[in-house]
Amino acid sequence: MKDSLVLLSRILAHPDSRCWFLAWNPAGTLLASCGGDRSVRIWGREGDSWVCRSVLCEGHQRTVRKVAWSPCGNYLASASFDATTCIWKKNEDDFECVTTLEGHENEVKSVAWAPSGNLLATCSRDKSVWVWEVDEEDEYECVSVLNSHTQDVKHVVWHPSQELLASASYDDTVKLYREEEDDWVCCATLEGHESTVWSLAFDPSGQRLASCSDDRTVRIWRQYLPGNEQGVACSGSEASWKCVCTLSGFHSRTIYDVAWCQLTGALATACGDDAIRVFEEDPGSDPQQPTFSLTAHVPQAHSQDVNCVAWNPKERGLLASCSDDGELAFWKYQPSEGI
Amino acid sequence: MAGDQDMFDAVVMADERFHGEGYLEGYEEGSSLGIIEGRRHGTLHGAKVGSEIGCYQGFAFAWRGLLHGCTTERDSKKMKVLEALIGMIQKFPYDDPTYDKLHEDLDRIRGKFKQLCSLLNVQPDFKISAEGSGLSF
């Protein structure tokens, strides 16, 4: 198992600072990183190594906590503790800040683009989730301010194919939102975690959602539509989500991030115990009660908390990770036969 | 004999009896003080909520007047959100503190107000002062 996840290279991406988050562009050719040094860096491959192609350091006054690429790959959004979200437009190797979204009362914790490219979501310590619409002229307009969570909202992520938004919070819940008659509403609350939910990831089909928490578990939730064969109760025409699997006993500290590979279905986790783990669904397991097995575990992946793991969207098995120690690492995941 | 027992009974149970009487007295006094404090708290809290919503309403009415007659598509979006906010405020049940969706509706009103401010490009900066003459949310 220890050969399954192999280190390819390590870079000190944000010296003397934390590296908070990583995002691959849709083409899988660039990696954006952001950190406590208030900058965003863009990394590109040159032969076998990764080099810094651009540094975006003028955008924020405080830590940049998350970055996200637009589905077309031409824009990058950066969410910062300075309460703003910058939208950068890519022009070859140059990035220009075209808009700054304001409105949150304090630290913006996450930003995510909808697959359509027309919607953007942000969330903050002010407990709200904002949905923004962008038009052809790069004008951003707030279409909804959602106050459903009762605490700091840590992460937002969009469903891969539906206009469905998910958020994770310090209030131990995951909430789902969709548009209903010109306004956005909270259509489901997933309860079960016993502590802060730090991150979320949808599976490639969008039928399942993985959440990771300070309670040291990963939960897998499955969507059940009204009239489903399994007899899962739904209220009215609303889909309901049920926890179908809980991965516990694998992580010894808070799990800060979870990433579901869109190519292979492998699930990677970033943990406060400095380790990276990969899980795979057991072949033939019951879809209503799936089981996952640990297929890779690197105990000292970094010298401090691992904050983020990100699967390359085009290259199978290529995983990037980053840590409080400011480093960014690249890994090759190759599950051995017979697991 | 029976008389002796009663006398001792009274002495032996005196402690417990005094505790009981004291408790009842204290409970009654506490209850009435609690009601007074609760009423004061309710009045203050109700006033805070009322002034917050009143502020949003005044803000919305003022902007409705300012935007009156504007016809661009952008302006009609603003009007739509404005009217939605006014509608929510008017539907809010002011005379029913036991309304089960009170906090939910309040949060929706706050969210709509924030969205409106974002569209109008105004920063709401109502500040509270100790005397309560300002407003802060």
From TrEMBL, chain A:
Transmembrane segments: none annotated. WD repeats lie at residues 22-43, 57-89, 101-142, 146-177, 190-221, 299-339. Keywords: Chromosome partition, Repeat, WD repeat. InterPro entries: CIAO1/Cia1, WD40/YVTN_repeat-like_dom_sf, WD40_repeat_CS, WD40_repeat_dom_sf, WD40_rpt. It holds the Pfam family WD40. It comes from the Eukaryota. GO terms for biological process: chromosome segregation; iron-sulfur cluster assembly; protein maturation. PROSITE patterns: PROKAR_LIPOPROTEIN, WD_REPEATS_1, WD_REPEATS_2, WD_REPEATS_REGION. GO terms for cellular component: cytosolic [4Fe-4S] assembly targeting complex; MMXD complex. Component of the CIA complex. Component of the MMXD complex, which includes CIAO1, ERCC2, FAM96B, MMS19 and SLC25A5. Interacts with WT1. Interacts with FAM96A. Key component of the cytosolic iron-sulfur protein assembly (CIA) complex, a multiprotein complex that mediates the incorporation of iron-sulfur cluster into extramitochondrial Fe/S proteins. Seems to specifically modulate the transactivation activity of WT1. As part of the mitotic spindle-associated MMXD complex it may play a role in chromosome segregation. This is Probable cytosolic iron-sulfur protein assembly protein CIAO1.
From TrEMBL, chain B:
Residues 22-60 form the Essential protein Yae1 N-terminal domain. GO terms for biological process: protein maturation; ribosomal large subunit biogenesis; translational initiation. It holds the Pfam family Yae1_N. Coiled coil: none annotated. InterPro entries: Essential_protein_Yae1_N, LTO1_adapter. Belongs to the LTO1 family. This is LTO1 maturation factor of ABCE1. It comes from Capra hircus.
